[in-house]
Specification:
The protein is of the alpha+beta class. The protein has one domain. Helix content is 38%, strand content 22%. It has a 3-stranded antiparallel sheet with strand order 1-2-3, covered by helices on one side.
């Protein structure tokens, strides 16, 4: 995959069960785990295809991990687990016991 597109961003937002907020220039997608905001990224609107190469950095992922999220080899559960391993999220209550 050379570039991430609006379609990639929309698919990833759906897979991560993001909360969506419509702004003037774009849609803001927010990933929550419980009450904790894990990541936020923008989905640009426009009549022409706009790049979304900001996705990996805003999701705290490597490029190939972001591609895996789009391709279905990484799901929401795996993403949340990865964020916990990287310290983006605190351990779950079951992991603390």
């Amino acid at each position: 995959m050379k570039h991430f597109t609006k379609e990639h961003a929309q698919t990833i937002a759906k897979k991560l069960a993001c909360s969506l907020r419509e702004d003037r220039a774009h849609t803001t997608a927010e990933v929550f785990e419980g009450e904790t905001l894990v990541a936020r990224f923008g989905i640009r609107r426009g009549s022409r295809e706009l790049g979304h190469d900001h996705l990996p950095s805003e999701l705290h992922l490597r490029r190939m991990e972001c591609k895996a999220l789009y391709d279905c080899t990484l799901d929401r559960f795996g993403y949340i687990r990865l964020m916990r391993e990287r310290g983006e999220l605190p351990p779950s209550p079951t992991e603390q016991a």
